[in-house]
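RETRY 2/3 - previous attempt timed out on the joint model. Re-submitting the same 229-residue input unchanged.
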Amino acid sequence: DTAVSQTPKYLVTQMGNDKSIKCEQNLGHDTMYWYKQDSKKFLKIMFSYNNKELIINETVPNRFSPKSPDKAHLNLHINSLELGDSAVYFCASSLSRVTGVYEQYFGPGTRLTVT
Amino acid sequence: DQQVKQNSPSLSVQEGRISILNCDYTNSMFDYFLWYKKYPAEGPTFLISISSIKDKNEDGRFTVFLNKSAKHLSLHIVPSQPGDSAVYFCAASAKSFGNEKLTFGTGTRLTIIP
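RETRY 2/3 succeeded.
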């Protein structure tokens, strides 16, 4: 059983388009995240939701909008895609606030290529 | 400003020997540290963690050491196995930032030579 899943795994699109990436976790976790890994392999947090409430919002262009319909899902919508958005996007989840255990579990990543 | 640094981008170790991966941090507010392992085309996988109240945590072949005064942690893998070949990331968090926020290093690619 896949714990944290993301779709699609690969996404190739043109500049100016709008696209979404979906994430689902079946671990019963209460917190979900989006990370971006850029060309330098630097993994950086973008957003975090706890029980559908936004708790972390790093300095990310407002073309990026996360949406959490329920605590098992966190989707990422990107408007007006730019070349610099090309990266691998990882979703993650954790049960931090309940257990005080801070390990995050990651999905397989979505490689976004903007041409 | 990179608060978590892994200064060795790569490391090669003979199978059966000890692998030592290093990580330095600059922010003294960090109080929880984690190591992740990443294979190509997969997400990072949690390996082991340590709280700042401890200086060592062991789990099977993996041991993490924390030296708070030096702001340094290391991951020891003994004995190293071919399946350990991967990129290893260290990460840190702080209660005052909300522990959910992990700050990652840039990773060290470990290659185990059979």
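Chain B touches chain A at residues 32, 34, 36, 41-46, 49, 87, 89, 93, 98-104, 106-107 (CB under 8 Å). Closing ticket.
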